[in-house]
Fold each of these.
Amino acid sequence: MSVILAIESSCDETGVAVVRDGREVLCNALATQIDLHKAFGGVVPELASRQHTRVITQLVEQAVQEAGLNVPGRPPAGDLKLDAIAATNGPGLMGALLVGSCFARSLALAWQLPFIPVQHIEGHLFSAFLGDPPPEFPFLALVVSGGHTQLINCRAAHDYEILATTRDDAVGESFDKVARLLNLPYPGGPSIQRAAEGGNPNAYDLPRSMRGKDTMAFSYSGLKTAVLYTLQAGDANTADLAASFQEAAIDILVIKTRQVLKQTGLNRLVLAGGVAANRLLRERLSELPGISVHMPPFAYCMDNAAMIASAADSLLAHGRTSGLDTVPDPSLPLILK
Ligand code: KG4
Ligand code: ZN
């Protein structure tokens, strides 16, 4: 039994959540910066850090009120006591990570609670535990975000093996880059999904890289270049090209996931990361025969603090708290050497 307040600030969303026992979300406050970065076509790190600083106090205040927390030095909003404070520790933008981490460590200091640093991808993995039913270990995880495209053998909590990763662009990154080529707004994933709705997914013949059975890797730069060449050839239809790109990008994920499920003999699959919000991907994976697929609810696909609190709950149970001098690492790996 634990109640954890967690902060996520690794990129362009500020999140503060309170979660009980790793599964029950009592508050999931989120401030997105999409409008701030839209004009630049992508995240501007310095602006992101400044915006996190502006909203974080207010979000912590909201979390205290909504969850009904009783914390030292202020009138009780309820009678719930916290057991620990957590924050994303990397990977991400250093300035952005520092805002959440420093705030969380200050709270831990003031409220005399343990501090739990959480690796962002491990947070995404735990977003599946916020859905019903929660997955059981061992399982294969497909982590698809703006920075990651990975298949991970999750043998037990905090015991992972990366089986496949991308050689170049991440799948979310390719959605963002192709959206820019098609003059669709940032973030590219949702824009392409919307544009693709009215398009023909077979209109353009785009490559599915790394489909060979022995290649334990993804690659997305060839697909992006193929879209560019199609545009340069002239007269491309945006809806058709968006639909054809989405079809190819999702196909690559599904082909490789099927191969690795077969090779490992695992029959449980967890989908996680921002691209997990993609409807076509969710549809295709749920059709895999003999595989029980766990997908986070939409609210927990994109960056949020509830998933960080869920991972922190398990870390706390495994005694994985940390000193208040723990500094974020912008390239923190999932598996420490
Ligand atoms: O996990 P996330 O919120 O942040 C990172 O940790 O990177 O993922 C953001 C990524 C972006 O590249 C965004 O374009 C992509 O997830 N994304 C989508 C969809 N919604 C978000 N990609 C495809 N289809 C979507 N519906
Ligand atoms: Zn993320």
Amino acid sequence: MTRSHSPILDSTAVINATFIRHVEYHAVLESTNLTALQLLAPLVKTGPSLVVAAEQTAGRGRKGNVWWSSAGALTFSVVLDPALLELPPEKRPLISLVSGLAVRDAIAENLTEHTVMIKWPNDVFVNHQKICGILAEQHSLPEGGNGLIIGIGINVNNTLQAAPAEVRQRAISLYDLEHRSFDLTSVLISVLRQLEIRARQLISQPMLLLSEANSHHLLSQRQISVNVNDSLVAGQCAGIDDEGNLVVVRPDEVVRLSSGVVTGW
Ligand code: BTN
């Protein structure tokens, strides 16, 4: 079967269908998060914006990792003023979880035959393989206020067959699962709509949001190991708590982790 990539993202359709007011579309960028950071102040001023690249040459991952992707993947950064979300500062760490859940919902809409799960804090998995990574960053602006960048990479029309072996083993794309191409504009619109729905839910019904996050959580009830500042926390995962922390039950204590990398499950 031949693969075709949607060559052009329909920016007008994205603006008409979502909360996004401005789209910066690039054929190739090092990293959409990097460009978003370089343009942060004007983009925040413009209103909710999107930096999209058809291809990234140096995608950034969590904890300084590199994010591998190839043409056909959907790689973009949402840029906005976090004050627009009307979230109290203590709820801001939950934005990461909200983003992961929103992408999970959008992918589940497109993949009815597969179970789509989140893996704390914000990875999205299908069949125990990663289909999306998210890098959320907040920066203060020189003229005051903050800018929020939510970088999202979804393996859509790319195939992991082209990836380095260690990436190929643990990642998957929509194309690899369904052997067909997806319309990138439609997938992007669906992610942005779910992002808005889940962000509103975080304010109006936070407990419902957390219970849904827990019901789609890959790690719950599993024995897990988490790397936290170069030491390992191992135990049974008891889900995600009201603050978005990962709860790990050990024989002698219950540990609540606000950050870390889950290395085993
Ligand atoms: C991770 O899983 O470690 C997070 C990966 C985040 C990748 C996306 S791709 C779009 C945006 N731009 C980047 O450079 N990184 C994020």
